Amino acid sequence: MTQILALGGGPAWGTAISFQPFLPSARLSQTWIEGQRRYMTIQLRAAVSGDAAACGRIIFRAFQRINDEHGFPSAYTDETLAARVASTQLDHPEVYGVVAEADGHVVGSAFLDERALVLSIGPVTVDPPFQRRGIGRRMMEHLLQRAGTAPGARLTTDAFNPQAISLYTSLGFEVKEPLMLLTGRPKDEAPTDARVRPMTADDLEATAALSAHVHGFDRSNELSDCLGKCSPVILVKQGRPTAYASTLSLWQAGHGVAETDQDLQALILGAASLSASPISLLLPTRQSTLLRWCVHQGLRLGKPMLLMSIGEYQEPRGAWFPSARM
């Protein structure tokens, strides 16, 4: 019997997706492997810690292929780095992973971050020899089923990947923001009328309020995980926090919000003064004033990406930038 998932819990702003009920050991599709006169059974199961190496290999290969085809450097420089990223996901109790297997070998993986009210999806990857066979769709359908009555879910994808955009659109996702990767060191010094400092646990309540104001939900659980790991920073202006970033040196994991464009600019300059690492962030290009300022500061434009969403979406109020998983 076909089931319906309605993210958001109601017809006023939900999106319906039809799919077949998932069974952990159910046969989901048969894939014809070129050069071999046999079919392979594709099965889904929950990912476990022991899948890190296999997931890392697939993540590396999938991103290397699409980026190489379009002349962009991949976010994953080798399989070891990709495996570390996968391991971080697999070992987290609030991140759910699913893998696709062909004859017992992992050929795809996908992750659902459940740390906030609005969920984040990614990375979703399939080993290149097994792509275009419906495996990514099956994994996405399973993640959306697991999302249940969550208000919504978000993801980012390369703007030059038509297959991924087509898949997500067919499942009900909508493009919400064009994004641009920006990297480099800003030329200006940090302003003297505001202070940028490392974030502490005492700041979580204030940063939750900032996120709720800009996006409609807070990300305290994610920020708590970042403390002591990702170098989160906060801007204090006239004794009051007005901006924060989970990190400004790793765009895949870094998100930030600010009350105004000027606050985000001050946050970027202040973060640069605290670290020798280059600034790295995904900036929504509709924030034209901020984009122009970043260009004037000497930040280099990298690859274009898209933020896509299903279910509830509040137009951001203030300045902001997402992580690779929103």
Q: Please, could you describe this protein's structure?
A:
The chain is an alpha+beta fold and 326 residues long. It folds into 2 domains: 3-172, Aminopeptidase; 181-321, Aminopeptidase, CATH 3.40.630.30. The chain contains 8 helices and 17 strands. It has helices at 52-70, 79-90, 135-147, 162-170, 204-215, 220-226, 261-274, 288-296; strands at residues 3-7, 15-19, 27-32, 39-46, 95-102, 105-113, 119-121, 125-126, 152-158, 174-184, 195-198, 233-237, 240-245, 256-258, 279-284, 300-311, 319-321. The strands form 3 sheets. Strands 3, 4, 5, 6, 7, 8, 9, 10, 15 and 16 form a 10-stranded mixed beta sheet that branches. Helix 1 crosses helix 2 (79-90). It is globular and about 65 Å long. The relative contact order is 0.15. Mean pLDDT is 87; it is low at 1-38.
Mean pLDDT score, rounded? Answer: 87
Unreliable stretches: 1-38
Please give the domain count.
Answer: 2
Terminal CA distance? 33 Å
Cα-based radius of gyration, to the nearest Å: 20 Å
Q: Quickly give the structural class.
A: alpha+beta
> What is the CATH superfamily label of the largest domain?
Gcn5-related N-acetyltransferase (GNAT)
Beta content = 25-35%
CATH topology term of the largest domain: Aminopeptidase
Largest β-sheet summary: 10 strands, mixed
Instruction: Using the coordinates above, name the CATH class of the largest domain.
Output: Alpha Beta
Question: Assembly state here?
Answer: single chain
- Examine the secondary-structure arrangement and name the CATH architecture of the largest domain: 3-Layer(aba) Sandwich
Secondary-structure element order, as H and E? EEEEHHEEEEHEHEEHHEEEHEHEE
**Globular, elongated, flat, extended or rod-shaped: what is the shape?**
globular
